[in-house]
Amino acid sequence: MEQVSSGECYSRFSVDNAMTDRTSDPRSKQIIHEILPVGMLQCNCSIIGDPETREALVVDPGDEAGRILELLAKHALTVKAIVSTHAHIDHVGGLRKMQLATGAPVLMHGDDIDLYRHLDMQSAWIGVRPPDPANVDKLLREGDTLRWGAFEANVLHTPGHTPGSISLYLAPQRESEPREDAGKLLAGDTLFAGSIGRTDLWGGSLEQILRSIHQKLLILPDETVVYPGHGASTTIGEERANNPFLELPRLSSP
Ligand SMILES: [Zn+2]
Ligand SMILES: [Zn+2]
To answer: pLDDT per residue over 190-207, tens digit each?
Structure first.
């Protein structure tokens, strides 16, 4: 199945395998958004930077902290916070190195702390050496807002892939003309282009992930660009219309 039908959903590959996504706003105040697939499982690490204040949020530095730091340096960005959408090893493996290199706080949802404490077990599953754990500086909750530069992201608790999975929603920029700019959703391993996150690992729940997607993600505007934890970008409208995994069972009321 062709997962993304509208071409503008794809970001371009530039040097060093990073995808650079910029809003269509021709003015110079474009948000900096670098998407760097890292590690054996090619987790999409996002760097989202303010072009004026040069402050950035780093999401899911799963591995290859050196490459992430190089990209930050290329844009002269200062990291304000490092966030993992959930505590699977492919999304947290680089947290400690990023924390040491930048001094920025590490944030994740409290319901994934148990998972994070078992990095050794997770490492054994995929056959890698366990990384040193970072100090988690703040536990995120539904409704929290992350602010850096002129930007903010709302924390949506979207359990199901793991108990503490979150998605981050960046509403369209206020100063942009309406319709010129779409919001962004960093969906972790909850929603993918044409698929959803697996629920057969520890703490997973198919009912929960479907409820999370229907109640927290599909209510966002159609044009919202979705950046999954792996693979290609998509939009909320595309997934609402064509994702075959979103129709399966009838959901019971929460
Ligand atoms: Zn995962
Ligand atoms: Zn993953």
So the answer is: 999 999 999 999 999 999
